[in-house]
């Protein structure tokens, strides 16, 4: 019966080698969570920074959850994509972070990574674009043994998230 | 510099601040002293002699001395300072300093200690390697302190070493470097301080020092030795070695670049080592090593106990875990050593052990599969950089690899049902084949047999029902079931008869065609086709057959007779009842006559009152005729002969075979030979076009002699784009000349469930419009030919044929394709609207311990009203969409919030008859609701598609023309003579709330309002004479003449009208004006409230409320009881009489933004007490034109304040089955038209109910009106047309915008429209136009705008020499030059085969020419460049009309009457409502008359009759007429007339309802409401 409001924005991203970036995002929760209102996933616009190297999206996130337990606390997964001069899109990084559990505003930095692929694929990526992508996107947040995966670091996505919790104290959860 | 020193320095600074001029020397000493203090138990061990004449050395010694001198240190310090021989800078007050120093020192010590430990720990961290073991020995530390006496330059360094003696040197250096954040002085150079000390040092006291020092040293050493002895016994032994080591260290120091002098002081020692032998020796002494040898059993057991082996005794002992025997032995030995015999050993003398827990086989599933899946999960796929296409739904998902969809098109063959090269015989053959196919199909269904069986079964059932042997049913029930059976028998019989008849006729035609063919073959003396019809005669037993036949007929006769007798009985009863009545009446009449004769003349008054049925002319009933069984028998036999096989007639079974011989070519005449050759020259191929692009073509195949082409090719299309159209083009080549396109065949895109292997072969027919004439036997195509020799009975056949094909989705071995297909279907259905809960991750996750940690159970979570409300709101459920401010607590949410919603959910499948009173309408309402829901879902999705312009508002950069215009504006007059209305600012709907929006109604004036008839208002108490006068007068048809106006009393006006506007149950009214042409010029302001407080565009569009503008007459009545009071007071009562109303839907106002114009007032056909004042207007010349048309008019201006932005039309491209070319042409045409006349709306394609784009002309097609209507005026086409228009207008009007939020116009076909019984202007217009077309009128659909509907559709017809414009919703027609025609502009005309756009300068129907043949005036869609392709109609072949059940209508009528009566009583809560039954029955008789005459021309009769009957009442009332849709509008209409508002105490009411049923459940409702006040 406890409620959680997740209100905030995806501010932008830094540190990506590509310039025109956009971000697909989604919030994943456990089975005990119920989305009361808001959009669970979305996509930002493509931002091409003119000054500095930070791509600003300022994409709003506004969700309202009801939960009957703590398990499966909402998690944010992000995919940063870049758009090249031909308007083609390719993956620039996967990211994942937990939504904070204490009320108040939080500044989150979510580092991202992308699969590296074989050397042929790397070569192809360098010249013709595209790139390896995960077949199962839930690998981003599920704890499968990822050590086999070779990845390269992407940039960082910056988020500003405010949390409102309600009735958690009623169930003995202090926050 | 290490932190310690830094601290010291800070402290020294503190001193200076204290005002004590502390010498640097002192400071130095202090420092070292402090060091000493910290390690005061470690005096130097080296010989003091070695430290000679060195400044620092001496200093050191001094310090040593100080150290020796015991605490308190404060003393010590003061002593030293005092005693200190060195001439320090003068100390002003030693004691003070000392005191200060005491506390300071305490602090310093703490800090130093802290700093030191920190540094040490830092070092320790730095060097985790084990320290040398000598470390423990204090002697070594001691030795290191001897580093102190170093050259002065090295002081700092040494000190640091002091701190970290324990570390190896090199590392130490490193660490020093590390710790040193800012070196104070470079190593090897004296600091300024040191230099100063050096030069100012006083060496006087040097000789004393060694002694002191040695003393101290001795003592120190003694102490130390003791301590060492205490420490370890082994420590002492190492001493010598340590010394050596020290030397070595010194050497190291040297190596490290220390001063070579140090070398002398340091002793080098060898590494400490103990020989292994010694160590072993020692270890032996202290350690116990259990032996590895096995322990004898006796040792392990208590004494005198024999080992006992449980296993031998037959007890189960588990397998012991595997342990190496040596380990076991060691363990045993150890245990024995510890406690000789104990609990560790079992009875068998072995160590106790539990059975091995290890299972012999693994219980976990093998890991191999898991590992694989994990790998699969991590699998990556290289994806090409891809472009996003905006309209996502037209693509197959962005992320899917392309080419995963495959459409298999199997084209097996082509059969021509007609071809130019067909010979006459072929034509017949194809006809024969067609008929035979039909015959086979019918044979297979064998409906006649089925029905016969059914009939038989029913008859048996009835027989059994009569059988009294079955007692288990009550008599009543049996009777009931038998009746049911009988009615069913009747129906089944009828059906069977028709079926049998059809069978028979089919057989007959089949035979006829075959005969024709045979004769043709004979005639031409050769055969072309192998077709052969063989008739097989089934054997029949003549006798049995005859018997069966006779029995059948007898049974039928029997039944019919029964029916008839029943009928007869019923009629007889009726007759008897009416006859009795008649007799009674006759008697009464006779008695009356007698009475009359007797009675005197003055009694007439009473007599009249007594007369119960003055008008009812009871006719003598005619007795019904009994039925004649002979006649019935004759009828039955006739019918049987017609439709059934005669008894004894052989059963004919036709069989068509291809066994016949075709005459070889050499035996044929020349023409035939050339025909055959021509056929051989022809070949056919097909092109496959996907989305309008050719993707493949079949091989070219020669046309066979039987006009069949076999292809048998399968085309696999790998598709990427969403399939929009799939088309086959049939091409024909003649010889080697060019190919001609015969026809285009559109194939339907298969459902996603249809996959290869499951798709059935289908045949699609095609036809071509080519005209071919051939010079041989071939009949050609599109040219008339005849079978007869004389050329009569001509036939025109077009090339046509069938393509058999199958289209299916392919399934690969790969599962993903299948999955993709399902996704495709998802995309197609496009119903993402079920947002929220639909998110189900596609993996399964065990939620461990979820249950235990749940706060609440699922049920409780679902029970939360707040959550539910929030969820429903976010789902945009209609009831909760835009619900604002959901309460924070559950307890604040009322349970009733959900009631409506839950009710709707419950009722979704239950048809509620209560609201609708009529099951048909209830089902229709349900259906409409479903269509609406699906459309709304569609639009909800479409609404979320944004274009750039929706998100980015960019003002145009001003260019020179705009600039020039604005400059021009500067010169404009400030107050122009003819001001123009300025556009108001539009307000977007979202930031509005209740009370922000107002409806402004400006009522300007009215024309030609009906005026009161003088007598009614004049005579308060009509005397007998006046009444008779009235009677006489009203009976005269002239109604009113100017002469009567003289009857008005002075000052009494004709009428005092005022206007009342009611909207959403708010009512405003104007002041009262006078006269039939009043001018009010008043503005009324009505608040507007949106449903649910939702001011979004979608919600505003669907506001169903109407604005009622009612015109009333205010009548004053004198109620003075006593004439004597007249002088002193006025007692009048105001009554208002309803005159008429104008109804404007809110949606019209919303879309039009403003409504401005003169409207016809809807005045009831009979308005008692009022008449039209015609002569007054006639006098005015300028209004004469107006008076030509009858009726009253009112001028209004209505708008909404603030102006609202009407919603944008939804941009969604709907899929279509139209030809791509046609759609493109339509778009082009529309764009061209819009460019020329942006405000004229051009319509080429519309959306049908299933959401597909359809070309508009497909809607127009002659359709038959109900036969009933045609029969009314068989000889008067004009009257018939009007009747048909009336019928159409009786179908309720329901705007699309209301039913479908989002501005989209869905067009339903006429049969859908008639089924739904609701539609807006377009549907009405289409139906009317189709009716007119079938009445052989020239009719067009007019798209234009009218008042007050806005953009709308009208119908235009051409009557002999003039045009008529029909309003399909009201049924009225207007001449082209009628000024009061509501149609104000015409933008395009639509006919069944073309669209014409108005390109004339004007668009008012008054000023344009409707001659569409003039290309300068009308731009046509299909022209010479784009000929009309012959589009088939979407309308049905013909409309079927059921008769409306009269009984149901009557029942409905009663119910409506009851409801309305109850409502009126409800509206008058404070008064008693009396009903005048007599009056009601009178009115009820009158209403059917009104329907028959359509409300015209009977007013006078009616008035007369009423007056005759209700003479002593003042009567005001009127009939209302409207189409029936629901009860609610009827109630609204009655309410708006305000009849119930009369509160005169003795008022009585009368209300009558009449429903006239038209075919197809179209009901015309008449409601007569009246109030009566008895005159005193």
UniProtKB/TrEMBL annotation, chain A:
It is found in: Cytoplasm, Cytoskeleton, Cilium basal body. One of its GO terms (biological process) is cilium assembly. GO terms for cellular component: centrosome; ciliary basal body; membrane; MKS complex. It comes from the Eukaryota. InterPro entries: C2_B9-type_dom. Keywords: Cell projection, Cilium biogenesis/degradation, Cytoplasm, Cytoskeleton. GO terms for molecular function: gamma-tubulin binding. Its main location: cytoplasm. Pfam families: B9-C2. Belongs to the B9D family. Component of the tectonic-like complex, a complex localized at the transition zone of primary cilia and acting as a barrier that prevents diffusion of transmembrane proteins between the cilia and plasma membranes. This is B9 domain-containing protein 2. It comes from Nannospalax galili (Northern Israeli blind subterranean mole rat). The lineage of its organism: Eukaryota, Metazoa, Chordata, Craniata, Vertebrata.
């Amino acid at each position: 019966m406890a409620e959680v409001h997740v209100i905030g924005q995806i501010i932008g991203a830094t540190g990506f080698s590509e310039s025109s970036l956009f971000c697909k995002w989604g919030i994943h929760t456990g089975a005990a969570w119920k989305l009361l209102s808001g959009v669970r996933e979305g996509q930002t616009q493509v931002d091409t920074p003119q000054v500095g190297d930070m791509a600003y999206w300022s994409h709003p996130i506004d969700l309202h959850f009801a939960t009957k337990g703590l398990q499966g606390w909402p998690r944010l997964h992000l995919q940063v994509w870049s758009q090249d001069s031909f308007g083609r899109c390719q993956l620039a990084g996967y990211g994942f972070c937990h939504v904070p559990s204490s009320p108040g505003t939080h500044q989150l930095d979510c580092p991202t990574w992308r699969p590296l692929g074989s050397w042929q694929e790397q070569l192809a990526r360098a010249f013709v674009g595209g790139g390896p992508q995960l077949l199962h996107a839930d690998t981003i947040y599920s704890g499968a043994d990822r050590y086999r995966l070779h990845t390269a670091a992407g940039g960082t996505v910056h988020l500003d998230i405010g949390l409102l919790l309600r009735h958690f104290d009623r169930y003995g959860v202090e926050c | 510099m290490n932190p310690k020193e830094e601290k010291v320095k800070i402290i020294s600074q503190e001193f200076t601040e204290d005002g004590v001029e502390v010498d640097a020397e002192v400071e130095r000493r202090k420092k070292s002293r402090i060091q000493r203090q910290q390690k005061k138990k470690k005096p130097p061990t080296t010989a003091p002699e070695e430290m000679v004449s060195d400044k620092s050395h001496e200093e050191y010694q001094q310090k040593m001395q100080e150290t020796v001198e015991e605490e308190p240190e404060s003393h010590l310090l003061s002593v030293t300072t005092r005693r200190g021989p060195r001439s320090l800078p003068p100390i002003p007050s030693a004691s003070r300093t000392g005191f200060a120093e005491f506390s300071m020192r305490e602090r310093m010590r703490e800090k130093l200690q802290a700093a030191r430990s920190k540094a040490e720990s830092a070092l320790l961290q730095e060097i985790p390697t084990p320290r040398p073991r000598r470390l423990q020995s204090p002697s070594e530390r001691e030795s290191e302190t001897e580093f102190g006496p170093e050259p002065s330059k090295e002081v700092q360094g040494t000190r640091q070493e002091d701190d970290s003696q324990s570390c190896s040197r090199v590392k130490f250096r490193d660490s020093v470097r590390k710790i040193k954040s800012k070196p104070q002085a470079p190593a090897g150079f004296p600091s300024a301080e040191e230099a100063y000390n050096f030069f100012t040092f006083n060496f006087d006291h040097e000789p004393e020092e060694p002694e002191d020092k040695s003393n101290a040293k001795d003592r120190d050493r003694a102490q130390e030795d003791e301590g060492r002895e205490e420490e370890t016994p082994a420590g002492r032994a190492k001493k010598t070695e340590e010394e050596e080591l020290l030397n070595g260290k010194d050497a190291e120091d040297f190596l490290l670049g220390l001063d070579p002098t140090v070398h002398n002081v340091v002793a080098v020692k060898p590494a400490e080592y103990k020989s292994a032998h010694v160590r072993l020796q020692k270890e032996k002494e202290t350690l116990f090593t259990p032996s590895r040898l096995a322990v004898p059993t006796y040792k392990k057991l208590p004494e005198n106990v024999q080992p006992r082996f449980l296993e031998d005794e037959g007890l189960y002992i588990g397998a012991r875990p595997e342990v190496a025997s040596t380990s076991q032995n060691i363990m045993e030995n150890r245990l024995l050593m510890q406690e000789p015999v104990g609990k560790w050993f079992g009875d068998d003398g072995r160590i106790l052990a539990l059975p091995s827990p290890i299972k012999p086989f693994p219980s976990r599933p093998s890991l191999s599969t898991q590992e694989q899946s994990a790998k699969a999960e991590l699998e990556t796929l290289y994806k090409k950089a891809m472009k996003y296409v905006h309209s996502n739904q037209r693509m197959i998902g962005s992320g899917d690899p392309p080419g995963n969809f495959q459409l298999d098109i199997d084209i097996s063959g082509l059969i021509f049902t007609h071809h130019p090269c067909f010979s006459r015989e072929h034509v017949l053959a194809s006809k024969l084949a067609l008929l035979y196919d039909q015959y086979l199909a019918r044979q297979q269904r064998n409906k006649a047999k089925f029905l016969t069986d059914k009939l038989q079964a029913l008859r048996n059932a009835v027989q059994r029902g009569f059988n009294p042997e079955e007692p288990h049913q009550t008599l009543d029930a049996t009777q009931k079931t038998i009746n049911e059976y009988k009615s069913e028998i009747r129906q089944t019989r009828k059906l069977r008869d028709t079926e049998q008849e059809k069978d028979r006729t089919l057989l007959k035609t089949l035979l006829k065609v075959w005969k024709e063919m045979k004769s043709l073959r004979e005639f031409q003396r050769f055969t072309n086709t192998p077709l052969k019809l063989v008739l097989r005669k089934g054997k029949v037993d003549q006798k049995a057959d005859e018997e069966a036949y006779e029995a059948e007929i007898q049974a039928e006769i029997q039944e019919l007779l029964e029916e008839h007798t029943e009928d007869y009985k019923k009629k007889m009863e009726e007759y008897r009842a009416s006859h009795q009545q008649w007799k009674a009446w006759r008697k009464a009449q006779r008695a009356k006559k007698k009475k009359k004769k007797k009675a005197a003349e003055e009694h007439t008054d009473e007599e009249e009152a007594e007369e119960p049925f003055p008008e009812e002319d009871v006719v003598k009933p005619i007795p019904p005729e009994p039925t004649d069984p002979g006649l019935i028998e004759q009828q039955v036999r006739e019918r049987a002969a017609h439709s059934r096989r005669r008894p004894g007639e052989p059963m004919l079974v036709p069989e068509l075979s291809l066994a016949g011989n075709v005459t070889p070519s050499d035996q044929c005449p020349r023409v035939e030979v050339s025909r055959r050759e021509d056929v051989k020259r022809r070949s056919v191929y097909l092109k496959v076009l996907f989305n309008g692009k050719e993707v493949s073509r079949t091989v070219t195949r020669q046309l066979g002699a039987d006009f069949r082409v076999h292809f048998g090719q399968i085309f696999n299309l790998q598709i990427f784009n969403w399939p929009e159209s799939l088309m086959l083009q049939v091409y024909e080549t003649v010889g080697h000349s060019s190919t001609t396109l015969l026809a285009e065949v559109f194939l339907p895109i298969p459902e996603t469930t249809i996959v290869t292997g499951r798709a059935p072969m289908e045949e699609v027919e095609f036809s071509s419009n080519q005209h071919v004439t051939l010079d041989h036997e071939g009949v050609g195509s599109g040219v008339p030919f005849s079978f007869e020799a004389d050329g009569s009975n001509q036939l025109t056949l077009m090339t046509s044929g069938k393509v058999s094909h199958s289209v299916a989705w392919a399934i690969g071995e790969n599962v993903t394709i299948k999955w993709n297909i399902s996704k495709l279907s998802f995309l197609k259905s496009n119903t993402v609207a079920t947002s929220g809960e639909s998110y189900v991750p596609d993996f399964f996750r065990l939620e461990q311990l979820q249950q235990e940690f749940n706060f609440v159970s699922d049920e409780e979570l679902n029970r939360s009203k707040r959550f539910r409300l929030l969820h429903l709101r976010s789902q945009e459920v209609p009831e909760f969409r835009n619900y604002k401010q959901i309460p924070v607590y559950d307890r604040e949410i009322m349970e009733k919030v959900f009631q409506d919603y839950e009710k709707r959910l419950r009722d979704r499948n239950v048809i509620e008859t209560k609201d609708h009173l009529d099951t048909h309408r209830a089902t229709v309402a349900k259906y409409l609701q479903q269509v609406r829901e699906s459309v709304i879902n569609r639009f909800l999705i479409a609404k979320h598609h944004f274009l750039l312009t929706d998100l980015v508002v960019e003002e145009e950069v001003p260019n020179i023309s705009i600039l020039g215009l604005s400059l021009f504006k500067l010169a404009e007059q400030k107050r122009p003579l003819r001001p123009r209305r300025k556009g108001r600012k539009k307000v977007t709907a979202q930031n509005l709330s209740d009370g922000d929006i107002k409806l402004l109604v400006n009522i300007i004036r009215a024309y030609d309002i009906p005026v009161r008839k003088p007598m009614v208002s004049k005579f308060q108490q009509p005397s007998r004479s006046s009444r008779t006068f009235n009677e006489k007068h009203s009976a005269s048809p002239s109604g009113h003449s100017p002469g009567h106006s003289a009857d008005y009393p002075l000052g009494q006006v004709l009428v005092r009208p005022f206007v009342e506007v009611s909207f959403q149950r708010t009512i405003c009214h104007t002041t009262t004006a006078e006269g039939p042409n009043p001018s009010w010029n008043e503005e009324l302001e009505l608040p507007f409230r949106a449903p649910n407080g939702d001011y979004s565009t979608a919600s505003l569009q669907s506001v169903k409320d109407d604005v009622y503008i009612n015109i009333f007459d205010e009548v004053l009545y004198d109620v003075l009881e006593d004439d004597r009071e007249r002088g002193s007071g006025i007692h009048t009562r105001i009554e208002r009489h309803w005159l008429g109303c104008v109804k404007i839907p809110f949606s019209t106002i919303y879309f039009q933004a403003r409504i401005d114009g003169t409207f016809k007032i809807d005045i009831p056909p009979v308005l008692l007490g009022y008449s039209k004042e015609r002569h007054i207007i006639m006098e005015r010349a300028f209004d004469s034109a107006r008076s030509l048309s009858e009726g009253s008019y009112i001028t209004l201006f209505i708008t909404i304040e603030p102006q609202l932005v009407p919603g944008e039309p939804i941009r969604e491209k709907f899929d279509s089955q139209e030809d791509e070319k046609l759609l493109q042409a339509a778009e082009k045409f529309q764009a061209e038209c819009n460019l020329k006349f942006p405000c004229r709306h051009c319509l080429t394609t519309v959306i049908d109910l299933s959401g597909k784009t359809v070309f508009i002309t497909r809607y127009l097609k002659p359709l038959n009106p109900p036969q009933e209507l045609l029969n009314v005026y068989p000889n008067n086409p004009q009257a018939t047309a009007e009747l048909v228009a009336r019928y159409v207008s009786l179908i309720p009007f329901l705007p699309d915008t209301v039913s479908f939020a989002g501005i989209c116009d869905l067009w339903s076909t006429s049969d859908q429209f008639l089924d739904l019984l609701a539609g807006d202007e377009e549907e009405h217009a289409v139906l009317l136009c189709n009716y007119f077309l079938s009445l052989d009128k020239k009719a067009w659909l007019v798209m234009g705008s009218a008042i007050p509907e806005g953009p709308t559709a009208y119908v235009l017809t051409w009557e002999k020499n003039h045009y008529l414009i029909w309003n399909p919703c009201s049924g009225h027609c207007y001449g082209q030059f009628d000024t009061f025609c509501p149609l104000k502009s015409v933008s395009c005309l639509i006919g069944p085969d073309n669209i014409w756009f108005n390109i004339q300068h004007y668009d008012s129907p008054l000023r344009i020419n409707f001659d569409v043949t003039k290309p300068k005036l009308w731009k046509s869609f299909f022209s010479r460049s784009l000929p009309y392709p012959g589009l088939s109609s979407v309308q049905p072949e013909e409309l079927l009309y059921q008769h409306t059940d009269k009984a149901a209508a009557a029942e409905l009528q009663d119910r409506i009457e009851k409801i309305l009566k109850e409502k009126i009583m409800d509206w008058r809560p404070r008064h008693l409502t009396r009903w005048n039954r007599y009056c009601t029955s009178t009115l009820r008789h009158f209403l059917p008359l009104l329907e028959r005459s359509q409300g015209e021309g009977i007013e006078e009769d009616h008035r007369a009759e009423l007056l005759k009957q209700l003479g002593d009442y003042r009567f005001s009332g009127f009939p209302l007429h409207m189409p029936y849709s629901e009860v609610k509008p009827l109630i609204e209409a009655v309410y708006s007339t305000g009849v119930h508002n009369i509160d005169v105490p003795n008022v009585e009411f009368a209300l009558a309802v009449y429903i006239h049923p038209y075919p197809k459940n179209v009901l015309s409702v008449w409601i007569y409401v009246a109030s009566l006040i008895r005159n005193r």
